[in-house]
Amino acid sequence: MHHHGPDCGHAHHDADAALLDMLTGPLPPSRKTMLSRRDAALDPLLMAAAFASGPHVTRHHYHHDFFPGVMVPQEEGGLDWTKFTGEDAGAKQERKRLTYVSRQAPRRTRVQQGLVTEDGKENDRPGENVSLKQAEAPSKKRRSSTAIVSPSPSAPVPAQKPLSESVTPLKVLPPVEVKCMARTRIPTPHGLAFLHLYHNNRDTKEHLAIVIDSAQLSDAQHSSTHIRSQSLDSVWSDTETDVDRITRGAYVGRLGPLSQHASAPHSHQTPASSSSNPLPAPLIRIHSECFTGETIGSMRCDCGEQLDEAIRQISQPVTPSSEPPAQVPGRGAVIYLRQEGRGIGLLSKIRAYNLQDLGHDTVTANLMLGHKADERGYEIAGAILRDLGLGSEAGEGVRVLTNNPDKISALEKEGVKIVERVPMVPRSWKARNPHLAVIPPNMSGDPLAPELKVKVEIERPVGATLIGGSAVYGEDLDKYLRTKVLRMGHMLPLWMEDPEAA
Ligand SMILES: Nc1nc2c(ncn2[C@@H]2O[C@H](COP(=O)(O)OP(=O)(O)OP(=O)(O)O)[C@@H](O)[C@H]2O)c(=O)[nH]1
């Protein structure tokens, strides 16, 4: 922090002297090779140091005029010194020079505007509001001179804007938009998936859709039952080639050295035959990122197994209602949202875990840290589902894998048509209480007999997506699951407390 005391900048400063010494003094023999003189590059620094020790220039000016951004790295035109690596960027590209540009209106104008009083003092604007940016800055008297980096030294000098203009009012957000940037085939232990990466206009995170629909591999034609991204398959520019399209994943069928069919743009117009579609509605899950549960196999939560289980269940073959019934590949998607820790982020979640170790539950821990129990949003998920043609009002709707009633209502608010909720019973509960493994047939399109289901789920081979495989069981996990039921209304039977519940 710099100061604005009355003596600021006028007195002799030891630091300035030390700096000058360092720049101009003879180097000790031992340092000669380590710190060689680079006079040209240091010129502006020397000037600044010299000016800073002069009688009329304070250290305040020194920082702001020559090194804007020393204190406020995000300052417009400032250099972000937090990213300074010490490497000589000029070695690779043409050296960029610091140029001094004043953004201040002439004094005459400033006096007229009441910015400078007769006695020569700079004033704050009368009656101005302090913008957020100013509130963060150490001084309200910030000058608007700045140094910018060429090559735009001759950029027009903008007149000072009235402060009211620079105070950003709370804006109504534009409608959420998503664009699928790329898609690729991913083989998983449960079967084939197409990973879709999305960008959006709300945050800078790369949200994902794991689409399971292996039928589109063999069928080169676009069918209304295929789960395809409209934004990915659309034409992005007049000049894009088939290779561009195929590279981002806008192809149909299977991609191979001898099979390259760029997809055609399409819209998700519901075909007239949608009511006669014999397939069960696609099964989807909206999953929130959980580094601990998914990547390092944490047994504090059930996130890892939920992701694995969702991909497994969606991949299960389904039986169409047509005659004769024959199994066809399952289809659906996991929308993978980058909202770690129910939206509070990994750092806060780690702190929350420590509070949980002190005896608080997951909801209280969040509240103690100043967060809500759940800070997630589902607008982006809604937009991704629309882009994939899933759950549209006129279409077949979706079946949703969840126990969380809030998620169901949030999705319905986004206009997602949900025809069924499919519960996610924790594997460890099913393993200890086989009754739980029997899912009523109307709750799932899974035709497997209950006995077979239990066997598949408990003895399934360890998948690469879940460290520790099916052995997910522990005190922490049971505590977490109990809290989800009791404090967040998750729709699961608490069978340990109440054997009847199962
Ligand atoms: N803040 C916090 N987040 C957690 C904790 N444990 C897991 N999470 C996060 O919770 C999210 C998963 O949410 P859950 O509440 O487990 O399940 P859900 O998605 O709401 O509900 P289901 O659809 O039924 O699974 C992930 O983002 C995890 O990182 C915790 O103790 N504290």
UniProtKB/TrEMBL annotation:
Protein family: Belongs to the GTP cyclohydrolase II family.
Pathway in which the depicted protein is active: Cofactor biosynthesis; riboflavin biosynthesis
Region (Disordered): 101-164, 257-280
Catalytic class of the enzyme: hydrolase
InterPro entries cross-referenced by the UniProt entry: GTP_cyclohydro_II (IPR032677), RibA (IPR000926), RibA-like_sf (IPR036144)
Keyword Transcription regulation attached: no
Identification of the protein by name: GTP cyclohydrolase II
Comp. bias (Basic and acidic residues): 118-127
Coiled coil: none
SUPFAM superfamilies assigned: RibA-like
Record domain GTP cyclohydrolase II: where: 281-423
Keyword terms of this UniProt record: GTP-binding, Hydrolase, Nucleotide-binding, Riboflavin biosynthesis
EC assignment: 3.5.4.25
Native organism: Hohenbuehelia grisea
PANTHER family: GTP CYCLOHYDROLASE II-RELATED, GTP CYCLOHYDROLASE-2
Catalyses which reaction(s): GTP + 4 H2O = 2,5-diamino-6-hydroxy-4-(5-phosphoribosylamino)-pyrimidine + formate + 2 phosphate + 3 H(+)
Positions with biased composition (Polar residues): 260-270
Lineage: Eukaryota, Fungi, Dikarya, Basidiomycota, Agaricomycotina
